[in-house]
Structures are given as structure tokens and as C-alpha cells.
Amino acid sequence: MERSSLEVVAMTVSRLRHIPGIGVDAIGDAADAAADPDLLRLENLDTDVRPPRVALDATRAAIDDDTANSYLPFQGRTGLREGAAGHVGAVAGRRYDPATECVSVAGGLNGVLNVLLATVEPGREVVLCDPIYAGLVNRVRLAGGVPRYVRSTLTPDGWNVDPGELAAAVGPDTAVVLLMAPAMPTGAVLDHRHWDALAPVVEAHGCWVLYDAAMERIRFDGRPPDHPAAHPGLADRTITVGSASKELRMIGWRVGWVVGPAPIIADVDLVGLSNVVCQVGIAQQAVADALTAPDADADVAAATLVWRHRRDAILRELADYPCVRPDGGWSLLVDTAALGLTPEEASARLFRRGKVAATPMTGWGPSGANYLRLVFANEPVERLTGLRDRFRAALG
Q1: Which residues are within 8 A (CB) of 123 and not within 5 positions of it... i.e. 6 or more apart?
Q2: Which helix (H) or strand (E) covers residue 371, if one does?
Q3: Rounded to two decimals, what is the model's pTM?
């Protein structure tokens, strides 16, 4: 289930040789084809929690706004860049100039790829925590980078990344340290201890910190985000990529942003002009309004509470199975190696016998081959009740 059904011919270019796909597409296609309303959709990062009302209203209005039906401005509409720069600045505790230190992109992963293309020379290393989303790994490889992994270890309270090990992975060959917090798929959260450890080695080696902030407010501990750019030693070396897809639940809008020091943002903008060119015109004001609404933080907090209840429901249902508790995000992992199964075997059994669609983590970092991912963003607690029986029917 590693590759899409569309991928039926041998790859002809070297940049694709180490890119196995993400697995989600195969499971999602199978779930769509089954068309079974009893099938639990735990394989894909969709959510049924509605976007902010202000965003829906602005989107409807944009359909009749001729200026929204435009490529221009290529770097994003002024209101969107002001909203994104203000949002990142508020979290990081500093001010960013929306004219020179922010560009809009067509979703967060487009932003990640653009940044990697602007910062990574072929053959240079990109530090990543393991396990991690295969889409991030794949983009590192597309940019010609070499992934260097830092292990996430299991503790009774969830995942932990040792700050010293993270800092030790940075060396003269490092171009970028690519971090996500909460990380996907683990839900691991990084904090000031990691920034303290990273600051001296980032300065010593002149590399960048690429911070994927797509889920930074989706934390289950009630604490605010801990942003690396808030650290004085990392402020001038941090590039933030944000997205409307997760916190704002605006997946179909395909709008994100990149915020950082002006010289590197100019390069990211140039990559963008040479890549996707621009983001969705009719979506930009809606994202700007959602980011800057007076109740924006309360809106994200209310959605996060819904997702926390769903996480807790799965952990209760699967208390007899080796699940790893996430501290945030939309997903959790099941250690299938502890069950004597590969993730692919567990996924197939759950699909056939338990009517559960779940994605194996093969290709999601070296340790991903031990885990199955369950996404809790798109199924209500009522449907998650009984997951224990589905697992027993499939896995024993």
C-alpha cells in the first residue's frame, strides 16, 4: 500500500528513487471505493470540525469580488500577508514586516518545499525528528537534501526528543533543521529546552531552522505555542511555515504563509514564482479574516477541545493495545511491532475485519516501520465508541 494505483511505471529520474509515497493515498482510495458508511475513516488528515464562520462568509463574498479572481499580487494579497505576519509575530514575540518578511503559498507543504529549495544545496543534510510525516521527508529528497534523523523515544507520558541529541545532529553538513510541534504523526511537542540546545550549534554552522507551525496551537496541555523564533539565539535563523488547513480547518482553501528574515524570504518568493506561482485568489481574504478575528484563539481552542475528547476516546477504547499518547495534533500511533505484526498487516486486517481505515507508517522515518497511524480529527466520539471491538475482531 505504499504507492498510488497511478504509479505503475518505473521511475525515470533519480530524485524519485527514494520516495515511496505516503501510504495515505492508497488507504484513502480503498476507503472511498468501499463506500461503506460503517467504515471508520482514521487514515487521512481531514476533519469534520467546521471552519470559522467568518472564513465561510468571506469566501462566499470573494466569489463576487473580481479582484480575487487574479494571480496578483504573486506574493499574496496585502491583507493576508499582514494577517500572517501579525499572527506569527504574536506567537514568536517579535514583529515581522508583511511587505518584506512574509509571502503566501499554496498550503503549508508548498511552503516547506519552497523553503527547502531556497536553502538546501544538493547533498546537504536536513535534520528531522523520527518518526515524521513522509511528505516532509519526500520534500527534503525532492530538494536534493539528505535526511538526518533524531529519534523520538517512548516514555510513559508519550514521545520525547532529547535536546542534546537534537543539537548533536547539527554539523557542518547541515543546511536546515526541520521541526514540527506538535509533530505529525507523533504529536510530540518541542519547547525552550530544545531551542536552548539548538541555538549555539545553529549559529556555529550557519544553518536554518525551518519550523512547520501547522499545528502549533493544537496542544492538549493547555499551554501556548513555544516558538523557536522567540529564542534570541534563533530569531534571525528561523523560517516559519504556517497553514490554514489544520488549526483553521480550511483544508480546501490551500493557503499558507512563510515568515522569516527578509533576505531569505526574497529567495523563497523567487522559488514560489518559479513553482506554484501563487495561492488561491478567492481564499486569501477568508484566511486573513480567520487569522485576525477577535476570537481566533478561542476558536482554535474550542476545536482543540473536540479533538482532545476524540484522542481520549481512542486511548480509552484501546487501553489494552500499545498506543502512544500524543500531546497534540490530530493523530496517534499504535506499535504494531509489539503485536507481532507489520503496519501493513495490521492495516489490512483492520480494513477487512474491523472496518477501520488506518495508514501504515512505512517510509515515515526509520522507526515508522513499527507503527500504524490513527487520525482522530474526522470521526466523532460516538463513532469511535466500539473501536475496541473492531480491533479485537481484526487483531485479537
Answers
A1: 144, 145, 146
A2: strand 371-375
A3: 0.95
